[in-house]
Known about the structure:
With about 290 residues, the chain is an alpha+beta fold. Helices cover about 20% and strands about 25% of the residues. Helix 1 crosses helix 2 (about 15-25).
Amino acid sequence: MKERIQKILSRAGYGSRREIERLVEAGEILVNGQSAKVGQAIDENDQITLRGQRLHLGSRLHATPKVLMYNKPAGEVCTQSDPEGRKTVFDELPNIRAGRWIMIGRLDINTDGLLLFTTDGELANKLMHPSSAVEREYAVRVLGKVEPEMLIQLQEGVELEDGKANFLRIKDAGGEGANHWYHVVLAEGRNREVRRLWESQGVKVSRLIRIRYGSVDLPRYLRTGHHKELEVRDLRKLYSLVGMTFDDGSDFKPVRQQGKPMSQRPERGDAKSPRQSSRNAYNGKSASPRGRR
Length: 293
């Protein structure tokens, strides 16, 4: 079945829909020898050329998609290459045969924590699109006195230069002295939004770590600068979150444990969930949260 060119090339992992649209508008994509048009309907049988190179859509579209979690350290930039020669978040990612890594959202240079990468451009588009309202959760160390009225204001909404913004939830995570830890949740990814919200109340963010994106938690054991590929069960949850279906080509049938319903079966390994384990690292008593270095 034919689909719009930006959708099918994005799903094949050649970039986000917006990136594909820009390539089409720049005349860098040909369809059957003719310049492509934004919104043009194509399928895997068409001859697609990108910057003079023939694309093999069939193998890309039928390859099992991958999602990678990466624990970004502060100091790395979220770009493919940097003109200033700084280290980028792509430098440590593994090479892949089919497709390329597409970054889902971004973090500023001074922020640590969870970044997701995928070979499925359609999934990346869904997870980043504002209409999906995918939750992002951060551990924030705040320098300055925080009054209860400030927390109420931050959840009711603050007018920023690019519009009104607010946290969906704020949870006190402890701390001593001038620094205090909070966990905050929002459902959009505007530039430096977490920092700007806190700064609107006259306090400063001295440390910021993303600990969750949608259904994916940053595990405590994943050290900064390291990555881990998501397992099938986690992929299914992530795809389901944005109304998509993950199909790895196998007939997946969960095995029931005799005497116990599936909902009561314990997870293998640590009794604590990844979310609980990652959050235990933030006890607010140290400038360097335990388990992150």
